Amino acid sequence: MPEEKVVMYESPEAASIQTVTGWVGADGRFWGNDEHMARYCGSTHRRCEKNPDHSIFEVRSWCKQCYQKSRQAKFAAMPVKEWSGEPLVIFDGDTYFFDEDSLRDHIIDNDIDLAGLQLCICEPNMPSEIDPSDVFCDDLPEDGEIRDEQVVAAFDLLNEVIRQSEPLSWSEGKFAAKLPQALLDEVIASRVTP
User: Fold this and answer.
1) Are 125 and 167 spatial neighbours (Cβ–Cβ below 8 Å)?
2) How far apart are CA 7 and CA 4, in angstroms?
């Protein structure tokens, strides 16, 4: 076995002065060859990479015009499904409708253009079943199981109730809603009648 070389603390072999070149952000942080990170950390605003004619935006944000365009493209690409009474939500919004009357009133009261109305059919957010091994994972030995049959039975009963539960809430789904013609006709008629 070869002997380990001994280098003393004071020895010129232990360290030497070097000149280093690299990118430094406005905050003084050294980034080496990473110009992007130095500029990112040192700037507050930037131009859109896709379209420099768009408005400038904050570095830790995104181009609002490109974002809006991508969101509209997402809605346009959504498959369309006939609405059959499920809860609806305005695309990318937090305005929900749980019945036809509230939807009709919203459209009429806010004078919403039917051609620009972007509604999505909601999907339910159901409660998740509970695994007792997950609940007690910190208390069980490694690869341990719950041996108390009453505890296991109680969780089984609770999970059966959870499976039969109503939705906890609703979220935007993957289908754009096609409204019934009768509802559209009602809205149009309300705008014609004084």
Assistant:
1) yes
2) 9
